[in-house]
Specification:
With about 150 residues, this protein is of the alpha+beta class. Helices cover about 15% and strands about 40% of the residues. It has one domain.
Length: about 150
């Protein structure tokens, strides 16, 4: 697959991407996440974007709507982000992930073991593609996401 948009993501440490390019990357990641989760996603129109070539990053709020079936209104709210992290070999790696909080109506749902959110990671497949995978349920150990509400 030849995807110039994702090539810009994987090559982001080699030069600066403009805000427009970062928004295209966020849209591509959101579209791939929607296919992965089989849902409709509404991304934030104004994501936070750090365009620095040394340490580019972004953070975008997203809302996910799953097919409504009967009286159950299952949806999710999350944060899609990218940052540069130090890899196992000491070299910079691009980390793309999303934290998803599930809701039924306005009620926040938790897993039976008190885990608060699901983390999904976008892994590089080759120089111009990648794929989402579910990392698992995580607990909000420091209550940093306690205030997440459906609005």
């Amino acid at each position: 697959m030849n995807n110039e948009i994702l090539k810009n993501l994987w090559d982001c440490t080699k030069g600066e991407n403009s805000s427009e390019v970062w928004k295209e990357i966020i849209n591509e990641l959101t579209n791939k996440l929607a296919l992965f989760l089989n849902c409709e996603i509404q991304p934030d129109a104004n994501p936070f974007i750090e365009e620095s070539a040394d340490s580019p990053s972004f953070c975008a709020e997203i809302k996910l709507y799953f097919m409504k079936s009967g009286p159950i209104d299952l949806k999710a709210k999350g944060t899609l982000g990218m940052q540069i992290v130090e890899g196992e070999n000491g070299e910079d790696e691009i980390n793309v992930d999303v934290y998803l909080f599930l809701f039924e109506g306005v009620n926040k749902l938790r897993a039976y073991d008190k885990s608060d959110f699901i983390r999904c990671v976008f892994n590089k497949i080759d120089s111009d593609d990648g794929a989402w995978e579910k990392s698992g349920w995580l607990e909000d150990e420091w209550d940093e996401f306690e205030g997440v509400r459906w609005e």
